[in-house]
Structure formats: structure tokens, C-alpha cells
Amino acid sequence: MRVPRALLLALLLDACLGEPPPRLHPVVWMGGALSWLEARAPRRPMARLVYGGLAAVALPACWGLLGACADRVAPWPVQALLLKPTFAGRSLLLAGRRVEDALVDGDVDRARTSLRWLVSRPTANLGAGLVAAAAIESLAENLVDSWLAPLLAYACFGLAGCYVYRAANTADAMWGYRTPAYVHLGKAAARLDDALNLLPARIGALLLIGLGRRRRESIAVWRRDAARTPSPNAGQSMAAIAGQLGVRLEKPDTYVLNAVRCEPTAADLQRARKLVMSAMLVSAALSLVLRGVQARA
Fold first, then answer.
1. Sequence-distant (≥ 6) Cβ neighbours of residue 28 within 8 angstroms
2. Which of 6, 132, 214, 250 could form a disulfide with 76 if both were Cys (CB 3.0 to 4.6 A apart)?
3. How far apart are CA 297 and CA 285, in angstroms?
4. Using one digit for the tens of pLDDT, what is the confidence trace for 148-207?
5. What CA–CA distance (Å, rounded) separates 102 from 124?
């Protein structure tokens, strides 16, 4: 099997250096393009629906085309530099660690502040248990969105695939809300992201189930609660990790996973972080194997 040098170097860059500066980060550029498009969106609901649909398709298509060109003409070290920003393992784990450290110190205010790096929900009124729960949920969900899905997209389809995925996921992150401002504009982006994450979300859940010790409870909670979240995919890994840790995960007024259990603590957040890190290592190895097979074919 041929060693996928670009992927291996990108993984090493993430482990050692983390994210590139914002001015050099393609995901930041994607966000800037979406903000530019949003500022020019029409106001009428049906026009916003059509406009958002066109944008949701055009933006990933353009980035995918750029990725395909880089796959053909760029040397492998440059490909590694282009690949690295499409996934973010080190930064995710460090963000979880900051929340964990604050909770261990008993500083809930600092934990709430650190949590803002992981979630978009309001954090000001969350108690320690809900802060830990939100951090665990984000670690589980972003195992898929920020790691597994882009790596699998690259392993199967090269830079074109991972850039299509990252652009679609960024559009959903910015527009995929059921609020008056985005219910029409972001509908297509949300549906496209749901489709792209359908398989990776379930692979992520299976990894969390298989790599922990409480497999029976994890499977039971996954089967019972995975569909309780508004997203058809986010609940997959979150329910699996709730069962694996034996904790209750709750977003107030939205969902409760594994409701019979107690709220998590800082120790549970530490266990979640270590479990997610194990799943990252396994999925990275899987991606290396898949990419090596693709290169040989």
C-alpha cells in the first residue's frame, strides 16, 4: 500500500501546531464569502429560499473545483498544507481541556467563558453540570464535523471532497438555524450538511460505542435517544457518548439524552475527552488506510 504522504503530514501538522492564523485559514475565507452573500440576500421568503439554495450548492462546488485543481498540480507538501485547515483535532481537544480545567478549579464563570469556544448557545446561566454536558456534546458532535467527516471525504475524494464538505458544513454552521433570519436562507445548507454527515455521524457513534467499556448502555441510549436532537446526525455521537459515560446530556428546552442518569462532572468531561481522542486516532488510521488504497487503485 502506498503511504499517503500529504495526509500523514497534515495529521502531524495538526497534532504539533494546530490551526493556521485566521488570515491564512480557508474556513475563515469561506465564512467571509458567506457573510458577503448574506448581506446581499433578498428579503422575500421565497427569494431567500432560492438564493440560499443556489449559494449552498455554488460555494461547495467552487471550493471543490479549487481542491481538484490542487490535487492535480500541487506537490504533496503543498497539498498537506491545504488539507490541514479542513479538520481540527488539536484545537477541539484543547478547548475541551480548558473547560475541564476551569471546572476542576471550581471556577464556573471561567468554564462558561471557555465553553463559548465550543458552543453557540448562551452560557451565562448554565450551572457546572450543564457546562460539562455542553462541552461533552460538542466534543462528540465535532468528532464528526471537525475530524472524521473531512478526513473520510479526503480519503475517498481527495482535496476536492474535503473542501466540498468543509464549505457545506461552514454554510450550515452560519446559516442553518430555524430563526426568522435563516429559516429560508439556510434551509438548503442545512439539508446538504445533513446528507453529507449521514454516514460519518453513524460511524462516529460506532467508534464511541466500540472504544469504551459501557458498550451495552451506549448502544441502548444510542438506539433510544439519537433521534431526540433537532439534527438527524448530531444526536448519533452525543447519545452514544452519553451512554458510554453513564451521564445525562441536556440542552435546556431542546433535548435530554440518557435522562435517567445524573449530570456530568469535570471527571466525566475528562473521560469524554480521552474517548474522543481515541476515536480520533482510530479514524485517522482508517483514513490513512483508505487513502492508501485509493492511491494504489
1. 22
2. 6
3. 19
4. 999 999 999 999 999 999 999 999 999 999 999 999 999 999 999 999 999 999 999 999
5. 15
Dist CA 263 CA 169 (whole Å): 30
What are the domain boundaries of the chain?
5-296
H helix or E strand, kind and range, residue 32: helix 26-39
Q: What is the amino acid identity at position 110? A: R
**Backbone Cα Rg of the chain:** 19
Distance CA 167, CA 51 (A): 16
pLDDT digits over 81-109, tens only? 999 999 999 999 999 999 999 999 999 99
Q: What are phi and psi of 251, to 5 degrees?
A: -110, 110
pTM: 0.95
| Residue from 82, 228, 95, 214 nearest 158 by CA | 82
- The mean per-residue pLDDT over the stretch 236-259 comes to 97
- The answer to whether the CB of 88 falls within 8 A of the CB of 14 is yes
Given a cut of 70, whether residue 16 has pLDDT beyond it is yes
Q: Which long-range contacts (CB under 8 A, 24 or more apart) does 254-259 make?
A: 254/229, 254/230, 255/228, 255/229, 255/230, 256/228, 257/221, 257/225, 257/228, 257/229, 258/221, 258/225
Q: Using CA atoms, how far apart are residues 83 and 65, in angstroms rounded to an integer?
A: 14
**By percentage, how much of the chain surpasses pLDDT 70?**
99
Question: Smallest Cα–Cα separation from 182: which of 120, 252, 122?
Answer: 120
Residues 283, 284, 289, 293: is their CA dihedral positive or negative?
A: positive
In whole angstroms, give the CA distance from residue 89 to residue 148: 10
Q: Running DSSP on this structure, what letter comes out for residue 144?
A: I
